[in-house]
Amino acid sequence: MSTPKISVRNLYKIFGDAPAAALEQARAGMHKPELLEQHNHVLGLRDINVDMQDGEITVIMGLSGSGKSTLIRHLNRLIEPTAGEVVVDGENIMEYGPARLRRMRRHTMSMVFQKFALLPHRTVLENVATPLIVEGARRRDYEAEAVKWLDRVGLDGQGEQYPHQLSGGMQQRVGIARALTSNSDIMLMDEAFSALDPLIRTDMQDLLLELQRELQKTIVFITHDLDEALKLADHLVILKDGEVVQQGEPQHILMNPSDPYIVDFIADINRARVLRARTVMTRTDISPPEGAVEIAGTATLEEVITLGGGDADLVFRVMERGRQTGVLAMRDVLTALVGTEPAGAA
Amino acid sequence: MATYDWIFDTLGLRDWCDGSDAAAPMSMADLMSRTGSAPDASVWETPFPSMDALNDACASFPQSRDLTRGLERGFLDIKDSLSVVLDPLTQPLSWALEGALWLFQATPWFVMIPVLALIVALVSRSARLTGFILLAFGGLAFINYYDYAMQTLAIIAVCALIAVILGVPIGIAMSRSDRLERVMIPVLDMLQTLPPFVYLIPLIFLFSVTEPKLYGIAVILYAIVPVVRLTNLGIRLVDPEVIEAADAFGMTDRQKLFGVQIPLALPNIMAGVNQTIMMSLAMVVIASMVSAPGLGVLVLRGIRNLELGVGLIAGLGIVLLAVILDRSTKAALARVNAAQKQ
Ligand SMILES: Nc1ncnc2c1ncn2[C@@H]1O[C@H](COP(=O)(O)OP(=O)(O)OP(=O)(O)O)[C@@H](O)[C@H]1O
Ligand SMILES: [Mg+2]
């Protein structure tokens, strides 16, 4: 695996009057409820270690209050940590002075907010051009670039409107265009789609995936919605009470939840729709008996079942890039659809 | 025998009390009580152990008027050195007021009234309001109150302008420092609750009554409060997520202040300016007692000479001015609000 684009190391954040003392307790093994009860300090984050790879979407998921926003705000230092470091492109950003930090925020990272956070007194075009205006660009310098991104997110010709004249979905498109205008490698998105209604939300997810195929940015995406997480994530990090309970490839987490908390979390999803043939198959290149149907590794189990037409004894050949990578028996498909106990809990 | 003799006796201070018998000044009350024979004191009439009551028991104990006199002496003692600093500092205010008074009165009415109407038309973009302004000033001029109205207007223009120029930066500073806010809020509360007459008193001692800055300072002190408060409040109320966005895109503090915080706080700041102007008007009237010219002088004349008609008409003129100022600034405020409703 290549060196990560962003690397969070041993990050602690404690809210309160005397975080240093509480930090010792947290380091000694104290968790969020006890720390609040005994020391009256809120444990925001506890010993976070996450690597985020270049060109991937890392999704951070957790319930309300689990520390997602706190974590993402450490990546551009909107919040200062109590201990630990964040390494971006090989540099520990905690060592940056104010000027260097501003340069990083202007060129390396951009951010999309849950409630859009557009400037209400500026036009849509000016909002989109914010990263360039901050750098001192005049209208004739930024106009072409801003219009380009505005068109790209599907808001052609809306540049002279004011944000309050647009719908929520359109405003968030402006938010995304604003982040793209900075041409930064990294995009931070804090519950960017949570304020939108479900249909628009799906549209926005599709837009994001489409942009991502084209631009290959490093995206850190926060959500409390598992379906959204599974749709977008290359790497999934699950937070609970300020701690990482499990992280990894989403399909792997679905098949091997390490904690009852995660089992609860994934209990309600439609597994047939998110699990893929590749995840459930038995890895082998020995051909199954004649007549086995070929399917793609990325096919969802739902597609596999439809293809099987109710025959429980079928065996499929799973193909990737023209080669067989494994076989998939319908029996395994059915087993995978029933949830898994947490590893070690059985 | 005074009620509280025993305190000084038990404390063993009797010698100290009798030591400086002659020093205690004689008050009218003292004289009165000397002449009549001391009545039998019942328990019901036990006086509060106030300074004066204790002084009865012990002549060396200071009386309450020593306190007020001490304050007065102290003030008079520092007055000269205070004047050395304050005089040159406030002199420009006198010039500004004199200049404005001259300008507003020297400009002929057929220039002044259209100019005022034009200004109102520009800030409010309302033909009705502009028409009303023309009518109001025409009416005031017709009954020969034009000059007085102009004097009042000139003083308000200068004082409100200075209050805003000073008040907005103070409000901004307060919004950025919780410590400064904690210090300033009691000061603002005091300025707002002190009866205006009270801070005229030290000002009269500091400056001569013939100087315009005397009433200028009084007006500014009184009127500055709302613009400071509302600037502070407005900036603190700016959506924190928008501030976060400004930070996340690498704005400097300066860009954030002028590009985000002030524009978003503008409706509140403008509301503060409106209040400041209205309070200037209120204070200008009171400041007539210390030589501020304008409609207030007529009100004062109405009271002093019992000229009922003069006082009432001048009062009506003040109301008219108030309505004019209020409507014009509110119209400007409404335009700001319309430009950035969320
Ligand atoms: N400034 C602060 N002072 C004190 N506690 C804070 C502060 N900011 C966050 N917290 C606490 O830290 C914890 C994590 O908060 P955070 O906002 O990161 O949660 P979240 O996962 O983003 O939740 P949500 O889904 O509601 O946005 C919460 O318990 C919260 O109360
Ligand atoms: Mg959050």
Automatic annotation (TrEMBL), chain A:
Q: GO molecular function: any one?
A: ATP binding
According to the entry, every stretch annotated as the ABC transporter domain falls at 30-266
| Keyword Ribosomal protein assigned | no
- What GO cellular-component annotations does this UniProt entry give? plasma membrane
Q: Where in the cell is it found?
A: Cell inner membrane
Q: What is its EC number?
A: 7.6.2.9
Among PANTHER family, the record links this protein to: GLYCINE BETAINE/PROLINE BETAINE TRANSPORT SYSTEM ATP-BINDING PROTEIN PROV (PTHR43869), GLYCINE BETAINE_PROLINE BETAINE TRANSPORT SYSTEM ATP-BINDING PROTEIN PROV (PTHR43869:SF1)
- State the family it belongs to: Belongs to the ABC transporter superfamily.
Protein name in UniProt: Quaternary amine transport ATP-binding protein
Native species = Mangrovicoccus algicola
TrEMBL record, chain B:
The chain positions of domain ABC transmembrane type-1 read 149-329
* Example of a GO MF term: carnitine transmembrane transporter activity
**Signal sequence extent:** none
Which Pfam families does the entry mention? BPD_transp_1
Q: Where in the cell is it found?
A: Cell membrane
Q: Which GO terms describe its biological process?
A: choline transport; glycine betaine transport
Annotated membrane-spanning segments are 102-122, 129-146, 152-175, 187-208, 214-231, 277-300, 306-325
Q: Does the keyword Membrane apply?
A: yes
Where does it mainly reside? membrane
Q: Its domain of life? A: Bacteria
Q: Gene3D superfamilies recorded for this chain?
A: MetI-like
Q: Which GO terms describe its cellular component?
A: ATP-binding cassette (ABC) transporter complex
Family stated for the protein in its record: Belongs to the binding-protein-dependent transport system permease family.
What protein is this chain from? Answer: ABC transporter permease subunit
Record organism? Mangrovicoccus algicola
Q: What is the lineage of its organism?
A: Bacteria, Pseudomonadati, Pseudomonadota, Alphaproteobacteria, Rhodobacterales
